[in-house]
Every structure is written in C-alpha cells, then in structure tokens.
C-alpha cells in the first residue's frame, strides 16, 4: 500500500507510528487497516443531502440528525487529525439450510457491536501506551460517521454499486470500524479505480429494486430496512418480493463476483448457534418467545424483538 506524506511532521516518525498501529490491528484480528486525514467530506455532503431530500432513508429519522457530524470527524473528536479505518471479517464457514427462512450472515453470531468494539478499544489502548497521550474515539456502526467514505479514502476498498465497500482480495463480507484520533499519521492513498466495471449483478438481483445505477441504495426499498428498521406494518406492495429473508438480506453480496474471494472468519464469537443453521420453516413459524430469547440472546437479531420476527415471518409465509 502506498503512502502519501501530507503532514509537516517528521515523515519517518509518522510512518513508524502508522505501521505500529497497522501491525497491532492485524494481530487483533482485523483484516485491513488504512489511514486517512480527518477532514470535511465535501463530495459526500452533496450526496447525503440529496439522499435525505429524496426520502431514501424512509422512516429512519435518525439519519437526518447530526448532518455536520456525519461529514466532519473533527466534530466527533476535538483536534482530530486521522481516521483509522479497519475491517473485520464475518463470512461464515457454514450457512443456513436452503429451504429455511433466512437471516443476514452478519447476524449469525454474537452482536458485532460488542465484539469489534472490544477489539477497537484494545487497539486504542495500545496506541495510548506505545505512542503517548492520544485522544480518540472508537466507532462500530454506532455514531454518525460515513464509514464507507472513510474506508475508500484510507485505501481499504472502493464503493461498489450496492454502496458497500469492496476489496479485490476480501470481497465485502466484513464489518467496518473506525478510530478517530488527534494524532498525525502517514495517510494512505485512496483506491481510485472502480473495479465493478460494467457488472450490474447486484442491481439486477435486488428483489425490491432498491439499488440504483449511481451507487445509491434507496434505503426505503431495501429488505433490510423493512425487516429491521421499520417498526410499522410492512407495506402490502412489497408482498412476494422478500423471498425467504426475515432479518436483513445478503442478495447483493451473494451475487457479487468479488465475494468468491471471501474466506471464512476466525472469530469464535461469530460462530452460529447450530439450532439456527438447521431450523426449518415450520420451526421458525412455531418459535416461542423463550426460544427466540435463548437462540438470539447475544445476536443482532434481538434488535427486531420477538414481535418483529413474527411480523416478518407472517408477512412472507404462504397463506
């Protein structure tokens, strides 16, 4: 990975600090680590404003909050100089039975918010111990931050047509995480080439036509939105379009050619409950609240609550 010197401090010292952080990140299990300058995301500002104006966030009103913070990490951490972006693989070795209701692969195991956040805190502690007095914050899909934009700026990957970060070596089945630091570091070069080329498999395969041709996802049409975010009844016009998905959706990732390079993760906490993998549709339909709580005690699936899963199942099961 190439480095760009954009700081007036000693470049050798910056490079040494950056390499120290990256080495420790890999030791902690992160798949990739890239660093970008903490600055205002001018290009993304226009896109975000347009996306919100068109109502593509649906009922996710929280997306309208903290507009400036989403675009400027210096508003999240005083004196921020660097954004460290990291990936953490979640691609499973085993997947659910074909003839069952499906949940997104990222939700198979323990909630990633806790698993990855703990790793990030370890990395931040390491930085503070090895480099000195550094102020910073750790983020795992838990604050107003445009993680895909920062992943691109830090050289981790490019933004695919399904709006996800893609890597030639690793595909897209990974979580993104960030450390925002008030520390000058050596910045990586963004990936300039869009390696999606003329491929439109994700666009063509989206069951609800939520993926638009300009690298934009209409969140108000996404299956993940309907099955996780929406707390109201699912609109009747979506009937018959969800396939077997009852929590999230992996269609655009499953069809992506770059995900043929995805390798199984090594995170024990992401291993699924065996009951989950072998559940039949009838078992899903008869699931009780006690069983739901047992199987998904530490899973992201509990976010929908028992009533949400039952609603989703009732919406797609044959009458």
From TrEMBL:
Sites where the protein binds cob(II)alamin: 70, 141, 162, 176, 224, 249-250
Positions that bind [4Fe-4S] cluster 2: 206, 222, 249, 252
Annotated catalysed reactions: epoxyqueuosine(34) in tRNA + AH2 = queuosine(34) in tRNA + A + H2O
Pathway the protein acts in: tRNA modification; tRNA-queuosine biosynthesis
The keyword Cytoplasm belongs to this UniProt entry's keyword annotation: yes
GO biological process entries: tRNA queuosine(34) biosynthetic process
Cofactors required: cob(II)alamin; [4Fe-4S] cluster
Record: residues binding tRNA: 231
UniProt protein name: Epoxyqueuosine reductase
Organism: Moheibacter sediminis
Origin organism lineage: Bacteria, Pseudomonadati, Bacteroidota, Flavobacteriia, Flavobacteriales
